[in-house]
Amino acid sequence: MADLPNVDDLARTIPDGALLALPPDHSLGSVALVHALIRRGARDLRLLGVPVGGFLFDLLIGAGAVAEIETSAVSLGEAGTAPRFTTALAAGGLRLRDATCPAIHTALQAAEKGVPFLPLRGLLGSDILAHRPDWKVIDNPFAPTPDPIVLIPAIQPDFALFHAPFADQAGNVWVGRRRDLATMAHAAREALVSVERVIAGDMLEDERLAPGVISGVYVGAIALAPKGAAPLGLLDEYPADAEHIAAYARAARSAAGFADYLARFVQRAPALT
Amino acid sequence: MSGAIAPEERLAVALARLILDPEAPPARHIAVGAASPIPAAACWLIKQIGHPVRLSLLHKIKGNPFSEGTRELFDLAGQGRIDLFFLGGGQIDGAANINLIGTGAWPGQGVRFPGSFGSAFMYLMVPRTILFREEHTRRVLVPRVDWISAPGVSPPGHFRRGTAQALVTGRAVFRFVNGRFRLASCHPGESAASIAEHTGFAYDAPATVPETPAPSATELALLRGPVYAEMRETYPAFCARVWGN
Predict the structure, then answer these.
(1) Residues 146-205 of A with CB under 8 A from B
(2) Which residue ranges in chain B fall short of pLDDT 50?
């Protein structure tokens, strides 16, 4: 597949200000695409954590690429708080819309169905709801007695960005059981995907593989990027490098440490494959 | 591995006993969120003791319990198919409100916490929640949280299946009864006075506060054997700290 674009080609198709949906670090996050966005010098991006953000968010925020985020959390997991996120929030340069995990899934499911909103239980009494004028509480019209319930408006991201183990020659992408990524891809205008490898044939013609597939209908472009999730892990293909993430968390406490990290690990273009 | 009981082992056993409380609704399906090694150890322990319980551990590297993505956890909880969940908080108050947002002006201009994750949904959808936070200080256990990620109590008419059963900290166990915490036991080295000193919210206490029971020899052997074996892949740093490799 010598004619596939690389991640830097894909990053050039993402305009400044775009709304990008990203999976959590542990679930097919594309470090390769995030690095390419930073190399491109992307600005004013809006990030949607599906449903949370971590290392990928922190890299983009630290690089000055982000104006606004909507997420249910930002955390580096065992490595602790996300230092560039915390710094940017305190400095006031980052708009944050707090959500809760199932609300983000619900917003994408609404977009996937092409409906303007879907209801969701819970949330009543939470200050998250109090700070979300875009979320509405109605009285359940089907209940015999008063029953307040929250309506979550659809979110249509401009792009869904993730890294999959493989794509096929027909342009389909395999994410296995991570079906919330399929919803993310279905909801977005298009999915931009980095992959470890490309396999022959059409997975939709294979009853065993098809249930884990995102149809090429939703895929805007695919880039070949072996180890494109590293230092995060990729399913059962390779584990996360916990020492790297912990070292990042320490370095990124200072602006200088973060700049040094970018120079070492991000700014160099990846080796051609 | 020394014979001394690690604080983490004591907490896991205290959680296990709360899960098995015969007076609470049955816990047939328990979910454990990310980065919760001690609740996970408690759940593996009761499974090893022989109780038939389904465990759904988020972020388990092998044996992910879901086929529809992590979203399935919330769909299961929404349907009432999860009986028990664990939540923590950067702040927890005497009404069992939890704050994972932060302190100061919205959205945490003082100290920012990671965010609310699924708490604003799970706390209301799950019949039993055990609140767990190792740090037991007036910084964490406050009279009133700065922001409510998820409320401990809801007014009549709000759809809600349950609330906190208990709060377990590194110093004590509180039960949550009729909208108020009651000190149930304190861990070795603590006393009614030391708990009062470090707790920012008002709570009830018995005249004599019992000590949190120590793990039995059987429980310790299970924790250090099969529970450790189950956990070492998902929680390597925790296992190395508690069990030494």
Answers:
(1) 146-149, 177-183
(2) 1
